[in-house]
């Protein structure tokens, strides 16, 4: 998925988790992790000067029943032009289960932040 936005414009993000299993799942923490991929094996996760969240980048999901959804909504602000990616990371918040401590959704969301259009003189 590729989305375009303008530098300085707020970008709404909505992540929907659908439980397709036969039992309730949760609790989880869902975290949105922005990064840049330089396409040479190097990823830059140090983006505090390029991307900011309006509100939180982490959401708590207590439980999702079978066939139901949980929706997390947030807003990002891109301060510079470039190609950015968002990983959606889940972390299990309970003990005693055989789940990995954290896992990512695939594919990453690709966002192209572009210069804003200037008003014609």
UniProtKB/TrEMBL annotation:
Database matches in InterPro entries: Ig_TRAPPC9_Trs120_4th, Trs120_TRAPPC9
Residue ranges the record marks as coiled coil: none
Cellular component GO terms, alphabetical: trans-Golgi network
One Pfam family from the record: Ig_TRAPPC9-Trs120_4th
Protein name: Trafficking protein particle complex subunit 9-like
Stretches assigned to the Trs120/TRAPPC9 fourth Ig-like domain: 4-113
Superkingdom of the source species: Eukaryota
Span of the signal peptide: none
